[in-house]
Input
Amino acid sequence: MAKTGAAYPQVEPRAAALADRRIAAGRPRARVERALAACRRVGARALVLGPRRVTRAADLARAVSLGLGALPVDALAWSALPLVGAAASEIEARRHLASGTPMVLVREGRRVVGVIERDRAGVDGAGMSLAARLDRLQSREDEARLWLLRVAGKIGESMGLPVYAVGGFVRDLMLGRVALDIDLVVEGDGIAFARRLSEETGGVLTVHEGFGTASIAGAATAGNATLPPVDVASSRRERYERPGALPVVSPGDLGEDLMRRDFTINAMALVLGPSGFGRLVDPFGGRHDLRRRVLRPLHPLSFVEDPTRLFRAARYAARLGARFGPDGRAALALALRIGDFPALSGQRLRAEIDLVAAESPASGAFDRVFRWQLLRLWDPRFRAGGGVRAHLRAVRRFEKRARAAGAAVDERDLTLVALLAGQAARVVGACLDRLAVTGEPRRALAAAVADRGLGERLARTTRPSAIADMLDHLSATELAGAWLLAPAATRRRIEWFLRHGRAARPILSGEDLVAFGVPRGPAVGLYLRRLRRQRLDGGVKTVGEEYENLRLWLGHSDPATVPARKEALR
Output
């Protein structure tokens, strides 16, 4: 029995008590499949490759399942991991884990004797609450979001379903920004929950049974404040069978749902249940990476499993002023080393480049795309020099001028024109193949970036009608390519065509010509084109002058044969 006033020794838990000692020494250049077999023989969870480099057996198994057993082990290594002595306090080890590192290595002397993994040490951000931040929201839109979150939590509690806000909403809340939409994850039947939420908020429910997801649009608060779109999903795990393929999805818990995400900063959740409202769940140290503006993937094969995450990284890096840490750079290098992702569809690749182009401004995101050589995923021969950057800036100017002139332009196609203009013809063809561009769009894009000598011909031409003849048959996409590849003087001629020449028409119509005596058929079009050329070159200005030219062409000698309508049209 303890005695009052007696002194007792205090035992402080040590880092060694947290460490998993099921480790083995590994050779960095060993093949993944052999290293995995060795781990399984001795029951090791991790291979130590150097003083601060470790690869986990789970990552080796993931690589083998993807058909990458021939990779060297060090391609999957976590680097620059913190080291603590076995006698160090547990608090010191947990402090490292809380700062965002995935693992802490425990050493005795100079030898690593164990590994403390963050996701096995119970570090999930528990104890940190964002409720106060939510309560400080002031605007009508923010108050509406807060109302929605509380309603969602209460509905989930009444159904016995834990509900969380996840992803970008949590990230932007921590940055003091307003998320454009709200993503909710439900541990259980997310569709049943979404039905109840839509009934409560009066929103329009769209259900995607095959994915276990639903969306709610047009919802409003009790005070009729409009709510942003809400996406609801059942928590799930994902498994990739091939690099770049869409994942196989199955039900999972919140931790597994967060583990499937792209970066630690997007792998945080907010508890919405009334008893824990606002508590942060952060199993991977996302809040620390967000504070340091670091983009860290959740495992070394993240970009191999889904290479489109690299384009998202470019967008986040530009938007948040973030950068890759050592693990992100290693994961990027591994994805580019794999290079060929036949299971990754061209449509997905193109969708990601369209999202990059939609960033405001897009220049920073494209800078990362080029710096990281991401368009090697289109074709390894793609070259992103200064000319490509200049084309991207210029094509936005062309787009504004074309729209001002009333021309219908597809900004997605214009982005491709800017990226492909100046590339070798074989690279252009390979990129269009990779992006699965076919039919008329492919023909127009290929023609837009081909050097057909159009600029030189336009430079030698001064007559407006001749300029129009050269450009009439070109689509807006092809005009953009011609404009990009042309010198300044020639660009002005293309701009003139967009503003004036493209829409120029004779006053007389085809029916007027038939009434005047032009036989129906090809002759009508021929004479209309001749009249248009004369109008473009300033040779005719009035309807009477157009009739006079027709009379001369058709051999009419009596002005009385000109219909009376000419006076009305003058």
Observations:
- Residues 564-570 have pLDDT under 50 and may be disordered.
